[in-house]
Structures
1.
Amino acid sequence: MDDKLDLTGTLSTYIAGERAAQLPQAVLDKAKTHILDTIGAMLSGSQLKPGRLILEFVKTQGGPADAIVVASDFRTSVIYAALANGTMAHADETDDAHLEKS
């Protein structure tokens, strides 16, 4: 087996085996904050030019409807959904990774 596949499998098994009850409440609260922040950034980014352009591009690529594209009326492949959602999440620097506006 390829080492990369084995590492991915090992990590996936570990993560899937974890339970929220085993994590400190502060960790759960921080994770929830980051998840909500990212969804908000994707919604905001979808209204900006980079977000609109990536939505148009991804919609034309076709592929299996396996994954959700936030702020859209279509589904696409996992790879294209990740591209679109990630682009929208970072389109206007409102995600929690930007402490100061540039």
Note: The helical segments are 3-17, 25-45, 49-61, 78-89.
2.
Amino acid sequence: MKKKTAAIYILVILGSTFLGAFAGIVSAYLGSAPSLDQVNIRQNFTTYIYDIHGRLITDLYTENRIPVDINELPDHVKNAVIAIEDDQFYNHHGINFIAFGRAILVNLKEWSFAQGGGTITMQLARNVFLTQKKTIMRKLEEFLWAVQIERKYSKDEILEAYLNEFYLNHGIYGIEAGARAFFGKAAKDLSLAEAALIAGVIRWPTRY
């Protein structure tokens, strides 16, 4: 029992030290953070081809993505994604240091990148601006982008961008394309259970 307690204590100390150092690095680099004004955010939406009678012939896409306005989505659809991906979304400024610290402890214990501690804003930054690499430097870049995104956009704008951006496997991106692919209906018509299932796919897209 004493050995277990000592091990936990060491993990807490290491995690706290790492988190403090990481926060210091982020603060030091904020002055040189990337400018969103210099970035052109473009999304590849699906193109639909219809016959003269308005019947769908085919669709052309590099990414199957159908844009949706956040105001068209019922609260239970938005809340399902927030609950699974970032339950403190409206309470932080891009970085949830508590969740990140918890992820560090798990990663130190398992000696891997088992958890990322990423917020919705950080995931949006990764999806739009960065790569999917799991390195310390890439995580730092993710932090910087998340801070800048939160400075420029409202929470609803960030959530809308994320809902149109997340990946669901098989070339499907976003809540609207996902709703049509999984359930044959618009995202605004999803039930709570259906929205929760899609939110679960976001975390583990390769399993579906």
Note: DSSP finds eight helices and four strands in the chain.
